[in-house]
Amino acid sequence: MKISLNxxxxxVDFDESPEQIAEILTFLNFECEGIEYIKRYVNxxxxxxxxxxxxxxxxxxxxxxxxxxxxxxxxIVCGAxxxxxxxxxxxxxxxxxxxxxxxxxxxxxxxxxxxMILSESEMKISESHGGILELGDDFKVGDDFSKAVPAEDAxxxxxxxxxxxxxxxxxxxxxxxxxxxxxxxRLPSFEVQETSTRNVEDxxxxxxxxxxxCPRYVGxxxxxxxxxxxxxxxxxxxxxxxQRPISNVVDITNYILFELGQPLHxxxxxxxxxxxxxxxMAEEGEDFVTLDDKSRKLVSTDLMIADPxxxxxxxxxxxxxxxxxxxxxxxxxxxAAYFDPPTIRKTAKRLALPSEASRRFERGADxxxxxxAAARCAxxxxxxxxxxxxxxxxDACPIPYQxxxxxxxxxxxxxxxGFEVSKSDAIKVFESLEFGxxxxxxxxxxxxxxxxxxxxxxxxxxxxxxxxxxxxKVPTAEESHxxxxxxxxxxxxxxxxxxxxxVAMGFHEAICSAMTSGDDHEAFAGxxxxxxxxxxxxxxxxxxxxxxxxxxxxxxxxxxxRGLEDIFVFEVGQVGxxxxxxxxxxxxxxxxxxxxxxxxxxxxxxxxxxxxLADVVTVLNELARGLxxxxxxxxxxxxxxxLMLGVKVAADNDDIAxxxxxxxxxxxxxxxxxxxxxxxxxDLERWxxxxxxxxxxxxxxxxxxxxxxxxxxxxxxxxxxxxxxxAEEVRRxxxxxxxxxxxxxxxxxLYSGExxxxxxxxxxxxxxxxxxxxxxxxxxxxxxxxxxxxxxxKLKGVRLRG
Amino acid sequence: MHEKIVELQTLRExxxxxxxxxxxxxxxxxxxxxxxxxxxxxxxxxxxxxRVEPQIRGEFGKTLNSxxxxxxxxxERKVKDxxxxxxxxxxxxxxxxxxxxxxxxxxxxxxxxxxKRIFSRMGFAVMRGPEVEDVWHNFDALNTPEWHPSRDxxxxxxxxxxxxxxxxxxxxxVQIRTMxxxxxxxxxxxxGRVFRNDKPDATHSPMFTQVEGLYVDKGVTFxxxxxxxLQFYRHLLGKNVVTRFRPHFFPFTEPxxxxxxxxxxxxxxxxxxxxxxGWIEVGGSGMVDPNVLETVGIDPExxxxxxxxxxxERMTMLLYGVDDIRLFYENDIRFLQQFGGRR
Lengths: 802, 343
Ligand SMILES: [Zn+2]
Prior knowledge:
CATH architecture of the largest domain in chain B: 2-Layer Sandwich
Bound molecules: zinc ion
Number of strands of chain A: 43
Radius of gyration of chain A: 42 Å
Number of helices of chain B: 12
Shape of chain A: elongated
CATH architecture of the largest domain in chain A: 2-Layer Sandwich
Largest sheet of chain A: 7 strands, mixed
Shape of chain B: elongated
Structural class of chain B: alpha+beta
Strand order of the largest sheet of chain B: 1-4-5-9-8-7-6
Oligomer: heterodimer
Strand order of the largest sheet of chain A: 28-32-33-39-38-37-36
């Protein structure tokens, strides 16, 4: 909302600077978003009369004029096509500054010119390009032109919160300032000289068929309107708040909208059949051509302003082309109405027709302002459009507005604010805001004025008190009474730990948009069904993700395209919809990581090593360790749909908590990635299964285990096994058939090739034995080794390597 | 002192000098042979013990023994020193560091953790909630009027196939969920991603991160809000910052306030970061609206509460000087790896 300070001066006296006004209103709820200093080039400009205008002998488009500026007649060469004898015009004399340049006496195509006849745009009054400004007879030749239009103004732009439609006008802002300063507010005059002898009641009838949607409709009528330019001061004010002046009829209604906040509409009275206005709901499917010449299909919730034959305006939203005021209009019906906010909102939104008028109706106009606004409009038509005002007014008000009083307990401010505001101080605030105040014992009964829709509850009054006393007056508590009442849910620590573990393993944390591309989800075979978004911002963000993997693959693609080679990234985030992991509609916290390139980067004295499947397993193991899950993980070797050679991370036998492995090349290609991507995605909640309130120790959930101070004995055994036999299977037999002296089983060598047959490989394990109370001897270990070897040899196709 | 004892002391001094002068395995070996070798000077002295005058023989023998132990230990130490020196002598210390696979935290995580840490010290628990929310938790329960523009599809992203479900626009629904589940006193902070129907550009992102704080108890006041918010920002931005509260409108709170914090970069004098104003707008706050408390079954006559929020991206951009919000979600490793440090 733009506010002109010149305009504001009409309603409240002040000599505060624009910056001070900005500051005051900012701390009264209306944040100032900018100050524009307007400078019009009117200083030194005189009112002149064109005595003579003849064609320039050497230039087609120029004229030679003689201009009387009061006691002096200047020769001026003028290029405006509308320049002609008899015009009253603004003239810049020699030495006057117009913007960047100074008017000089000089020859134009050989003819002397001692001044310049100005247009509105040259003086920065408006952006009109209608040639030189033609002044009316009310300007006196020789006068200082700057008396008519002030040279300077400051325009402040404020953010008006949606609860305060009353502040969407100069009066509204003036009211806030007047209250703040405790200075009187001056309303504009609502007197109207009803100069016509005709009576409006004979010529205008208003029937409200839809009173809920239109509780009040005020009509006035003027006759003999002459559509022309608005007065200069009005043009200047409208221009400074960014409104383009159009014609007096349009400008006057606009002016009152920005002055009082009441939207008005002007109908050409001759186009309103029988002078009868019917306020009704539109018929379903009714066609209506609005002012912008667009035909619109209406629905039964649209409010129609109609005459007995046809619709003439879409109530509160836009006028109709069929009743528009034109240059030939003679009589005008002025509409000032109060419309039901939700009704207007629905229509404006459905037809995407937001306007300054609908913006005010939607949030709630002042239901007490209609008669005054109509009177002011009629009077301005009389003054600036040559109209005569008909006697009387038609005020149809089937549902008068009511503002129920609100009880205010003075102690309540202290309870909410932590700062006592005395009853008398609160009353002063209320009274300065023109609230009705009545004391009943300890309670103050406050009746809000018609324009304050937002005051309905005691807390609203507390806020008014806080606002006008000033938030800065509320003391800043030194310390607040702290109690440790709430505890982080267990998932929070898991989230942090997972991130810590991944970072410690050399991964970069990524945060991807949770809105991602449905196509990217489709690249994954089987069951990735994200939530579709109704009106997505762009096709790359048309679903809410069901998996972190698509986003992470986009990160891989981005970095590869930028020439990076080793990409280790992960994300921890929420997913929804139907993901990989069977979370049907539930939202889960997932972790996903991707590895591309070299695990050990190349350096001057080391060679690189590419990432492989073992790295995925290693990361998962380390992650599990970081999360203090019991090792080892259960891997299921079934390959899953998208990850070739996949390993599934199983939480329980049938509850799959994650998938991991090498991404299928064809999926990678869909993301423009032509390199092996090793990745995993885990449902952290399902994997870790946190339980609130359950003890979970950081770093080591199992607790300290005593270790032996005696030396260990180690034995190496190696087997030749079919390549299809997983190493883990062999390891488990070794572990399960040893006794309690076994401390560890480590695969320390893996070999295939000569002299082994194809389809075979050799697995060498080191078994570490140790007792807590003594040094072991061969006698302790030999029988164990014999047992485990014979057990392993029971596996199909497995034999001890000699 | 007897001259024989003085002789031993002189020998010890010579030994120390020779050890320190030795600068190679050869030269220290030569020292070893010369002093403690079988024909070395200490062995010679042992042979002389019998000839030493009886009254000092005891002292001479003792001193000689300790000299031999000293010589053996010091020569051995020097041998190891010289060996180690040889090991590192071949290494060029100006070689570049070997590449270390160094991970990094996302800057949003770093600042979010900082916020969590500060609130945690004030007794606030961290709460999270679903990103896909229902209309009731996201709007209705938060006292958002039916007509409020934030409900429009032009502002809010709704799901296509599931009625009344949307991507949450605030983390405030977490406050509702918490108040439904717990009785006051309640102190929580709710970090999380939120979503708006905004076209991405340098300063707007359709997804961003918010942290909201909520405190509900008997006797909680606007004054407490001001105090807590000030303390929070002093911990986050330095002890000299000040805050100011401007009236505003949020459906969820009344009275409502926008919070400005004095610019930590210029001390409020005006600089590029604060656009010369000396102040930085950091978020909304206010006293929880009685309607909200009633909706979750908390009696607003008995309990009061405050809430406040801040945008993590905005704060992160400010603190690290990141000039384009899109960098956060592009996840370019050259960006990410700049945030390697841990907190
Ligand atoms: Zn600054």
